[in-house]
C-alpha cells in the first residue's frame, strides 16, 4: 500500500492503547506519537507509562513527541469536578485539555491531521471524544480523524497485542480520582465475589 503523505499527530495515553491504533494508521500516514497526559498521577505512574510508550516507539521506529507534564494546568481545568464519576464532566474537561494541546502542537508544527487512541477504551465514549476532537480541529484549524477504535474487537485485539509485547498494563485511566474509583470497584468485586 502506498503511504499517504499526510503527517498525522497521534495523541496517546499509553502503549497498550496505542499498539492496535498504530498498526491501523502507520501504513496510511506519516505518523508521530504525541504523549501529553498531565492527568496521569502519581508521578511514578506517569513515568512508567511514558517510558513504555517511548521505548516501544523507538523499537518500532515511530517518531514520538513528549510534551510537558503540567499537572497544575490539569488540576485547574477539572477544579470543581473532582467528585464526578469516571466518564462524566471531569473526563470531558480532561479530553478537551489533551486534544486541544494535541491540535495546537499539530497546527504549530505543520501536521496535516491529528487524532487520539483514547476511543479504544471501553470506558471512553467515542461520540464525546470525537465531538471534542472536532471542536479542537475548528479551534486550531487542523483536520481531525474521528474514530471509535474499540469497534470490530479493536479493544480485544489491543489487549492481545499488548500482552504479546509484554507491556505494562495499568488498571485505571490515569488520574487519582479514577484510581480511587478503580480501587472501590475492585473492593466491591472482592467483597461480593463479582467476576
From TrEMBL:
Family membership: Belongs to the QueH family.
E.C. designation(s): 1.17.99.6
Catalytic activity entry: epoxyqueuosine(34) in tRNA + AH2 = queuosine(34) in tRNA + A + H2O
Taxonomic path: Bacteria, Candidatus Komeiliibacteriota
Residues given in the record as [4Fe-4S] cluster binding sites: 13-14, 91, 94
Species whose genome carries this gene: Candidatus Komeilibacteria bacterium CG_4_10_14_0_2_um_filter_37_10
Disulfide bonds: 173-175
Annotated gene: queH
UniProt pathway annotation: tRNA modification; tRNA-queuosine biosynthesis
Annotated function: Catalyzes the conversion of epoxyqueuosine (oQ) to queuosine (Q), which is a hypermodified base found in the wobble positions of tRNA(Asp), tRNA(Asn), tRNA(His) and tRNA(Tyr).
Gene Ontology process terms (BP): tRNA queuosine(34) biosynthetic process
InterPro entries reported for this sequence: QueH
Name of the protein described by the UniProt record: Epoxyqueuosine reductase QueH
Record's keyword terms, sorted: 4Fe-4S, Disulfide bond, Iron, Iron-sulfur, Metal-binding, Oxidoreductase, Queuosine biosynthesis, Redox-active center, tRNA processing
GO terms assigned for molecular function: 4 iron, 4 sulfur cluster binding; epoxyqueuosine reductase activity; metal ion binding
